[in-house]
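Format notes (please read before filing issues)

Several people have asked whether sequences and structure tokens are stored in separate files. They are not. Every record keeps both together, in the order shown below: the sequence lines, then the token lines. Line labels are part of the format and must not be stripped during preprocessing.
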Amino acid sequence: MKTGHIQQKVKINAEPIDVYNALTDSKTHSEITKMKATNNVQNGGTFEQCNGHHKGYYLLLEPGRRIIQAWHAEQFPHNHFSIADFRFEKSKEGTKLVFNHYAVPKDSVKDLEEGWKKTYWNPLKEFLEKKNGNKKAAVKKAAPAKKAVPAKKAVAKKVVKKAVKKVANKSSN
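Then the structure lines:
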């Protein structure tokens, strides 16, 4: 199976920890996407989002900094997982979200490129910016981070490389 890669960058007027929490908290995630989400936020924990259309598990959680998921969409071949990598960088605007989605089946790339924008980034920006009253999020105190096992940058790179390689090997069989 041929796969593709999606990269998107989004500027959000909110603190990185607030963006991280919005994507990992089940209730907030459901409110943003208008679809049910269940997130077991711990390394190895599972998630089911968008009314069950997206499922997987967390490979790495660094509150306010990074989320890496083994990610499966219902239109993917059975047991094929892609890798979704969300990086949150502090910026003047609040947060620069750098999103990479690896090992996406080629026939799903175009739909997911639009889907991430329509279902996630646009409603996420609107939700957080409205929550913050369109003011710089730095004025507000960030919510406490959910507990997760922190990891160093080298470990994160290793996790992504290993997961992408595993997915690529599985897909070529």
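For reference, the curators noted about this record: Residues 33 and 91 are 25 Å apart (CA to CA). The helical segments are 16-24, 26-33, 109-131, 153-172.
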